[in-house]
Specification:
Blueprint (H helix, E strand, L loop, with lengths): L9 H7 L22 E6 L4 H10 L4 E7 L3 H10 L4 E3 L2 H7 L6 E4 L6 H10 L3 E5 L6 H14 L3 E4 L6 H12 L5 E8 L22 H5 L26 H10 L1 H6 L7 E4 L14 E6 L5 E11 L6 H4 L10 E7 L3 E5 L2 E6 L18 H11 L10 H18 L6 E4 L4 E2 L3 H4 L21
Helix pairs in contact: 5-6, 6-13, 9-13
């Protein structure tokens, strides 16, 4: 069994459902007469994706960054160089405790295994949270995060930036125009691969000066430091800390298709590829899902995810015009043709000759994924105008993580009971729905104290 997973829900629910005072009522510091007249912002994760999130956040006129936490001193130095007045921390818990009264919103841009504990801790302290994709590393965490956001009356936006782009919004609208008729099958493609077929590295290297390795491991299994094996980038390949290619790109690529077809939870899933060992994700993924039908599908929907060297059938790929960039996207197969969505590009309807007159609906540009989150917090609008709010992001991430569970049990079909959060035909697989945190790590509760 994969290290870090447990048969009990107690681990995750103990971490998430701590005693908390009455539901949080927004205390926006800029409303209370702050001389800055801005929301006070703190970042968890300051380099790479974290640095990009910081840049997008602070580009909003009503944001003032006050603190950032990162386990790497080099990352702290970079953000400190950008914002000299900023206070930096190695331990994100210390940042939330010491600057609690000043912080309105928090971004979480860390390796996947830390999303749940960091986001829920911020929520329990009454902070609105922007958390990178995938929302969490386990299905149990996804559900606990929904509960935590609701209980604390805070807004949560998942960092699928493309969801707010014209491309994804046009694709969603085009799907619902039904130009190719009812959809019976979907092929979802990622040309990226975050797998590793090499044997697990048992090397032990000195921890670099300025890196808090124990803090980086966080809730995950304790392991020795290995140069470039985990930090700063290759953690996505490791089952204990990342979610592989499906976890990395699925939330982006599935977004328009999942939203446009109005899908719910799948009923079954299987993987046709094997995980090379218990530590790493596979390099070439093929995962099949079965979804209940919707008003936009013929009946039950068959959906297949492929990554790396795996590919949709040749007859579908041959329909794509030569020179068209289709490295990331979906092929939605209907009774009259194929609708192609593309991550970062406009959708198409194929064959192009047959559907030459079909055009996506013209839409107005949005202020951006980060800005829409900030605007919703300021206006107190709730999550109705967000495109990756917690109640959308959690179910989307859940079915993606279900595919990762299937990879551990390839090629068996796993039958999923969403209401019970249980795989009903495989006890060992169902044990992976929830995970426990490493001893000494728990979600922070009201007042900034760990449970």
């Amino acid at each position: 069994m994969n290290p870090g997973f447990t048969t009990s829900r107690r681990g995750i629910l103990k971490a998430a459902v701590l005693p908390v005072a009455a539901p949080y009522v927004s205390r926006l510091s800029w409303v209370q007469g702050s001389p800055m007249q801005r929301l006070q912002y703190a970042a968890i994760g300051a380099d790479g994706r974290g640095g990009a999130d910081i840049g997008s956040m602070i580009s909003h006129a009503q944001i003032h960054i006050v603190a950032a936490a990162d386990v790497d001193a080099a990352a702290q130095a970079k953000v400190k160089n950008r914002f000299s007045e900023l206070e930096t921390f190695f331990d994100w818990r210390e940042m939330l405790r010491s600057r609690n009264d000043e912080i309105d919103i928090v971004s979480v841009s860390t390796p996947d295994h830390m999303h749940g504990i960091q986001a829920m801790s911020a929520m329990n302290l009454g902070k609105h949270v922007y958390v990178q994709k995938p929302l969490a590393q386990s299905i149990g965490e996804c559900r606990a995060m929904q509960e935590t956001a609701k209980r604390n009356d805070v807004l949560v936006q998942m960092g699928t930036q493309g969801a707010s782009s014209l491309y994804d919004r046009m694709a969603t609208a085009l799907i619902q125009q039904e130009p190719v008729g009812k959809i019976s099958e979907v092929w979802t493609v990622s040309g990226k691969s975050w797998g590793d077929t090499k044997p697990f590295s048992d090397a032990v290297d000195p921890v670099p000066e300025g890196l808090d390795w124990d803090g980086w491991l966080g809730v995950g299994e304790e392991r020795p430091y290995v140069d470039n094996y985990y930090h700063p980038k290759n953690w996505r390949r490791r089952q204990e800390y990342g979610c592989g290619t499906l976890g990395d790109m699925g939330c982006h690529i599935f977004n328009a298709m999942y939203r446009g077809l109005e899908l719910t939870a799948p009923t079954a899933v299987r993987s046709a590829t094997a995980v090379p060992n218990r530590y790493n994700w596979t390099s070439n993924e093929r995962v099949e899902y079965r979804f209940p039908g919707t008003r936009y599908t013929e009946s039950e929907l068959r959906m297949t995810w492929v990554s790396g060297r795996e590919s949709p059938p040749a007859e579908l790929m041959s329909m794509i015009p030569e020179g068209t960039n289709f490295r990331f996207g979906c092929l939605l197969v209907g009774s009259e043709g194929v609708l192609m969505t593309r991550h970062g590009s406009s959708p198409m309807v194929l064959p192009r000759e047959k559907f030459a007159g079909v055009r996506p609906e013209k839409l107005e540009s949005m202020g951006g994924h980060h800005h829409s989150f900030i605007d919703a917090v300021i206006a107190g609008r709730g999550d109705g105008e967000l495109l990756s709010p917690i109640d959308f992001a959690a179910p989307l991430t859940e079915f993606i993580l279900l595919g990762n569970i299937a990879m551990q049990h390839s090629p068996d079909w796993l039958e999923w009971d969403s209401k019970k959060a249980k795989i009903i035909n495989n006890k060992e697989a169902s044990e992976r729905v929830h995970r426990s945190y490493r001893e000494g790590w728990a979600v922070m509760g009201a007042g900034g104290h760990e449970g």
